[in-house]
């Protein structure tokens, strides 16, 4: 074993790039909500980008090392302390056996990502170490980490003191713009409601987790009148239960939109008005409750260009770290 | 039935066979889903069949979404000619109706329900025109059900009642979803019954509970050793009402690794079913009971 958990934080889970392929059975892909930050953390400590690390929401854990290794913290901004001494974010730094890593209060973002040289080496289930507590898969016995857990690490790759130039990171935005492609059951709401959805300010509601993020603040949506189809249920927001897409925006009762995230339910009986584009899914993982958000209407070509930009940004960081 | 194609973001295409539920829509969805699988289109990462729709997830770096869309539309024609027939299995699922655990949960979430003064079963019986809860329970388990979708969470089956539409039970979902549902609750929403595979949030009315584990991430349950999820689309289910003593006994057998669900191989032919529903159901029951 290499890491002892002294304090777990609020909800700190082992995550990697997830377990695709089982969503048709109701088992979501899971994995780091902000995959960009998890990938960069792994690059910094010389890991395969798909290695397992920790995702800690709102509050960092307290970890004691029982062997020498390297660590990087990315994602949310919070003071990083090694034996009480500050360390930089988006940087790899060495730790010695016996040292303790802890965190100060959250300053910005929502989730901090921790990578360790060699990656966390807990058992894989369905091809991933990602924690899916609802289905009791991955993580430590299917759950978040807890006080007293000991986490093993794999064989380290090439480690060195590396940092990411801040200019290569995602630019900050306020309000945060989440680009979305209208579709799915978009036709169920009136044109006026369609326009309002993209024009209004929304804020992140307290019900925001790995399954989905709820938003409030906009006007209730108006439905195009229809006789409810057989099997759908009586509410105008009900449909015959179907599959959901990652990033899809469902609006139960037409009031508060919920964007399904990495631990999404795979299907259900609420209508959806489209989906947040794949390139912007990472951003949702860094939203705190009460953050102001705008949904921005885009077309497919814009979505694909954004996907390309995200990939190019990662590639630049990869190259910079390899050169440095 | 009119097929509707739409994008779900840049990684999914959602195809709705019909906006209302029918076995015709289910068979058409599964036929196209199978055609997509057989076509082995590069870039397809997952195919998700559902009640009256299906979804394809793809990698847009490998195949342009418009090309993917065109390929799916091409495959629809082939699926139209597919026979609505499948080799499947019928499984007996024991249900303890009006059990103490779902009852406790029913009472805990009364303020989220349409009728806070009745239980879920009393409400469902009344709005479906049954004189008593007992008569309603009888209607729920009298005929077999068809698993038309697996999903929501961890291997949860959605079941469609194999009777004429006018005889089908329909209930709304809770006004606001509950934050808790006991594991293995037998629920109901819209025209679908379901079994909650794990404990958690839910919006379906609660009728009872089954002692039969249907999801086991540790794969210790004897009949889930090969795969952690029990149900697949196309399975046929016959509910069997049981009492507390039998519930406890099956629970113990599942834990001890000695429980084997009663089941039989059958063929389900939609045209034969539509031509003679009670005759088809009687044959399904013969297959189950002859085993």
Mean pLDDT of chain B: 95
| Helix content estimate of chain A | 10-25%
Biggest interface and which pair forms it?
Answer: A-B, 53 and 57 residues
- Describe the oligomeric state of these chains in a short phrase: heterodimer
Question: Which class do the helix and strand fractions of chain A yield?
Answer: alpha+beta
Q: Determine the strand fraction of chain B and express it as a percent band.
A: 25-35%
Shape of chain A: globular
Give the SSE string of chain B: EEHEEHEHHHEEEEEEHEHH
CATH-assigned homologous superfamily of the largest domain in chain B: Cyclophilin-like
Write the layout of secondary structure elements.
The complex is a heterodimer of chains A (324) and B (291).
Chain A: E1 3-7, E2 12-15, H1 35-44, E3 53-57, E4 62-65, E5 69-77, E6 80-82, E7 85-87, E8 92-95, E9 100-103, E10 108-116, E11 150-151, E12 176-182, H2 191-199, E13 202-208, E14 212-216, E15 238-243, E16 248-250, E17 258-260, E18 267-270, E19 272-276, H3 281-284, E20 292-297, H4 300-323
Parallel strand pairs in A: 12-20
Antiparallel strand pairs in A: 1-4, 1-11, 2-3, 3-10, 4-9, 5-8, 5-10, 6-7, 6-9, 12-19, 13-14, 13-20, 14-17, 15-18, 16-17, 16-19
Chain B: E1 4-8, E2 12-16, H1 23-39, E3 44-49, E4 53-58, H2 65-80, E5 85-97, H3 100-108, H4 120-127, H5 133-142, E6 145-150, E7 157-161, E8 185-189, E9 192-195, E10 205-209, E11 236-241, H6 244-256, E12 263-269, H7 270-275, H8 277-289
Parallel strand pairs in B: 5-11
Antiparallel strand pairs in B: 1-2, 2-4, 3-4, 5-10, 5-12, 6-7, 6-11, 7-9, 8-9, 8-10
Helix pairs in contact in B: 1-2, 4-5
């Amino acid at each position: 074993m290499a890491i002892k958990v002294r304090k777990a934080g609020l909800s700190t889970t082992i995550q990697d790039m997830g377990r695709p392929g089982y969503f048709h059975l109701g088992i979501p892909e899971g994995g780091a909500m902000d995959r960009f930050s998890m990938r960069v953390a792994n690059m910094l400590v010389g890991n395969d980008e798909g290695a397992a690390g920790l995702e800690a929401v709102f509050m960092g854990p307290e970890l004691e090392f029982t062997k020498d290794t390297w660590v990087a913290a990315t994602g949310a901004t919070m003071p990083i302390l090694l034996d009480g001494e500050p360390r930089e974010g988006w940087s790899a730094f060495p730790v010695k056996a016996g040292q303790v890593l802890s965190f100060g209060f959250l300053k910005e973002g929502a989730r901090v990502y921790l990578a360790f040289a060699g990656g966390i080496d807990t058992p894989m289930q369905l091809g991933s170490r990602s924690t899916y507590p609802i289905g009791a898969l991955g993580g430590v016995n299917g759950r978040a980490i807890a006080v007293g857990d000991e986490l093993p690490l794999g064989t380290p790759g090439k480690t060195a003191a590396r940092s990411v130039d801040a200019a290569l990171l995602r630019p900050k935005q306020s309000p945060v713009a989440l680009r979305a492609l209208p579709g799915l059951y978009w036709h169920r709401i009136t044109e006026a409601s369609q326009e309002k959805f993209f024009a209004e300010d929304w804020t992140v509601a307290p019900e925001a987790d790995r399954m989905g993020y709820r938003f409030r603040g906009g006007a209730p949506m108006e439905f195009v009148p229809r006789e409810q189809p057989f099997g759908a249920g009586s509410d105008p927001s009900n449909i015959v239960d179907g599959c959901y897409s990652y990033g899809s925006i469902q609006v139960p009762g037409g009031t508060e939109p919920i964007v399904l995230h990495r631990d999404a339910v795979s299907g259900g009986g609420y209508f959806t008005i489209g989906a947040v584009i794949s390139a912007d899914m990472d951003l949702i993982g860094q939203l705190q409750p009460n953050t102001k958000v705008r949904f921005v209407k885009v077309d497919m070509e814009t979505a694909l260009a954004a996907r390309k930009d995200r990939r190019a940004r990662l590639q630049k960081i990869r190259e910079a770290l390899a050169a440095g | 039935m009119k097929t509707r194609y739409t994008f779900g973001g840049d990684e999914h295409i959602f195809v709705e066979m019909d906006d209302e539920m029918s076995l015709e829509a289910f068979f058409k969805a599964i036929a196209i889903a199978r055609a997509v699988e057989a076509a082995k289109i590069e870039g397809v990462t997952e195919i998700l069949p559902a009640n009256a729709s299906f979804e394809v997830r793809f990698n847009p770096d490998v195949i342009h979404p418009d090309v993917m869309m065109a390929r799916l539309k091409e495959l629809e024609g082939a699926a139209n000619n597919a026979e609505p027939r499948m080799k499947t299995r019928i499984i007996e699922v024991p249900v303890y109706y009006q059990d103490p655990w779902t009852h406790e949960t029913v009472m805990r979430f009364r303020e989220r329900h349409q009728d806070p003064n009745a239980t879920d079963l009393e409400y469902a019986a009344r709005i479906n025109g049954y004189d008593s809860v007992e008569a309603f329970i009888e209607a729920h388990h009298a005929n077999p059900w068809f698993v038309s979708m697996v999903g929501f969470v961890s291997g949860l089956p959605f079941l469609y009642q194999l009777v004429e539409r006018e005889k089908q039970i329909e209930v709304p979902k809770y006004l606001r979803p509950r934050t808790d549902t006991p594991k293995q609750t037998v629920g109901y929403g819209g025209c679908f019954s379901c079994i909650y595979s794990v404990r958690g949030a839910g919006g379906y009315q609660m009728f009872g509970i089954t002692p039969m584990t249907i999801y086991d991430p540790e794969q210790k349950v004897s009949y889930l050793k090969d795969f952690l999820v029990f149900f697949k689309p196309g399975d046929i289910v016959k509910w069997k009402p049981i009492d507390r003593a039998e519930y406890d006994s099956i629970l113990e057998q599942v834990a001890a690794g000695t429980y084997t669900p009663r089941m039989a191989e059958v063929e389900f032919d939609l045209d034969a079913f539509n031509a003679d529903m009670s005759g088809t159901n009687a044959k399904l029951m013969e297959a189950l009971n002859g085993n």
